Amino acid sequence: MNLTDRAYGLAESLLSEPLPRRWSHSLGVAERARSLRPILGEDAALMEAAAVLHDIGYSPRIASTGFHPLDGARFLREQEAMDERVVRLVAHHSCALLEAEERGLRDELEAEFQLEQPDLVDALIFCDMTTTPDGGRTTSGARVDEIVGRYGPETIVGRFIQRAAPEIHAAVQRVEYRLAADQAAGQPM
Questions:
Q1: Quick one: how far is CA 34 from the chain centroid?
Q2: Residue 119, C-beta contacts closer than 8 angstroms, at least 6 positions apart
C-alpha cells in the first residue's frame, strides 16, 4: 500500500465516525494539497499524506495531551511507524510551535520533532488555513476569523491563532506566489 492510500485509510478510521466534520476538513485539506502538485514535485504524495493526517490528534482514540499536533505525531511515529517527514509535518502544522508555547509544550514539541523544510511547512499551512471546517475553500483571513470566533479570542487557541496570523498569511502568500510563478512559466510566449 502506498503512502497516500495508507494515510487516507488511517485518517478515515480515526476521524470519520467520531469527528465527521474534522474528517470533512481533512479531506478538503488533502484536496488542496493535490492542487499544489505542480509546485511540490516529488514531495506531492508526502504533502497529501500529511494533509489528510494533520488533524488525527483530535481523535478520541489517540488524544492524550489535548494538543492535537503532538498527539497525532506521536501516534504516527510510535504506533504506525509513519514516514518521518509526514510525522514532522503533522507535528508542526500551521504554526504549532506557537500553540505549544501557549500550552507549555513548546520544549517537548521542539525536542521530539524537527521542523520540515520551509516550503513544505508553508504548503501545509496553505492547505489547512485555506480550508473551512467543512472542507470548502476559504481565505486565510476568513479562516483565522472563523477560528477566533469558534474558540473565543481569550482562549488558548484564540490567542495562538491571533499570534500566528501574520505568519499564516505570509505562508499562504508565498505558496500563492509559487503557484502563480509556476503557472506563468508554463504559459507560451
A1: 14
A2: 178
Give residue 189's Cα distance to chain centre: 36
- Distance in angstroms (rounded) separating the CA atoms of residues 163 and 160: 5
- Give the 3-state secondary structure of residue 187: coil
pLDDT at 187: 64
**6 in Cβ contact with 45 (< 8 Å):** no
From residue 134, give the alpha-carbon distance in Å to each of 31, 77, 87, 131: 13, 27, 24, 8
Task: Judge whether residue 188 has pLDDT over 80.
Answer: no
> Do the Cβ atoms of 90 and 50 come closer than 8 Å?
yes
Say whether 166 sits in a helix, a strand or coil.
helix
pLDDT band at 15 (very low <50, low <70, confident <90, very high): very high
Reported pTM: 0.95
Cα 155 to Cα 161: distance, rounded to the nearest angstrom: 10
Whole-angstrom distance, CA of residue 103 vs CA of residue 88 = 19
pLDDT tens digits for 111-146? 999 999 999 999 999 999 999 999 999 999 999 999
Amino acid residing at 103: R
- For residues 144 and 138, is the Cβ–Cβ distance under 8 A? no
Percent of the chain with pLDDT strictly greater than 70: 98
- Contacts of 19 by beta carbon, 8 Å cutoff, 6+ apart: 58, 59, 60
